[in-house]
Amino acid sequence: MADRVGAQGWNSTPQMQTFNLINPYDRTEDVRLMVQPLAVPADWKLSVRNAEQGSGDAAATQTEFPIHEVTPGREYVVSLSAKRQIKVASVLVPVGEVGPNTTARWTVEGRIGNEVVGTMVHEMNTPYLVADLKLPPWAAKSRWRKALR
């Protein structure tokens, strides 16, 4: 199950969901992580990285099993020893304007060779916030208040 991490702001703030990645075999294997956007605005950025890198801790960036980018936003690979498990972060970075109540959906599929060993479906909802909305002076007049009664 994915854990929601970081709920600060949405515009260009990376949002992460973490999950466990396991090598089910008795030998070291390269696990390919394939990212597939399902309902993600075209200018938004998707990536996969070690969950420890999401903390911003400089010491944590040196992980035992680093995830390497093959194709930006699409394909990643990590070499895992037998029966090993690591925590992975699926990262979404909204770019530009974020519409109200936007839901982004994407998958991260784990493959060893041609075999699918697992798939995570991610979904994130943006809040309905218009932080920089400035009404013109005429909109604040009492006639609008009377009309709403």
Labels describing this entry:
mainly beta, 149 residues, five-stranded antiparallel beta sheet, 5% helix, 1 helix, elongated, Immunoglobulin-like
What do these coordinates show?
By secondary structure, the chain is mainly β. It has one domain: Immunoglobulin-like (Sandwich), CATH 2.60.40. Helix content is 5%, strand content 46%. The chain is built from one helix and nine strands. Strands 5-6-3-8-9 form a five-stranded antiparallel beta sheet, with no helix packed on it. Strands 1-2-7-4 form a four-stranded antiparallel beta sheet, with no helix packed on it. Strand 5 and strand 6 form a beta hairpin. The N terminus is likely disordered.
In short:
Helix content is 5%, strand content 46%. By secondary structure, the chain is mainly beta. It has one domain: Immunoglobulins (Immunoglobulin-like), CATH 2.60.40.10.
Layout of secondary structure:
Layout: E1 3-5, E2 15-22, E3 29-39, E4 45-50, E5 68-71, E6 75-80, E7 85-93, E8 103-112, E9 115-125, H1 142-148
Antiparallel strand pairs: 1-2, 2-7, 3-6, 3-8, 4-7, 5-6, 8-9
Please report which band the strand proportion falls in: under 5%, 5-15%, 15-25%, 25-35%, 35-45% or over 45%: over 45%
Q: What is the C-alpha radius of gyration, as a whole number of Å?
A: 20 Å
The number of domains: 1
What is the CATH T-level topology?
Immunoglobulin-like
Q: What is the correct CATH architecture?
A: Sandwich
**Major beta sheet summary:** 5 strands, antiparallel
Please report the total strand number as a whole number: 9
**What's the end-to-end separation, in Å?**
46 Å
Order of helices and strands: EEEEEEEEEH
Nearest-integer average pLDDT: 79
Strands ordered across the widest β-sheet: 5-6-3-8-9
Which class of secondary structure composition applies to the elements? Answer: mainly beta
Q: What low-confidence regions span 5 or more consecutive residues with pLDDT below 50?
A: 1-10
The level-1 CATH class: Mainly Beta
Give the overall silhouette: elongated
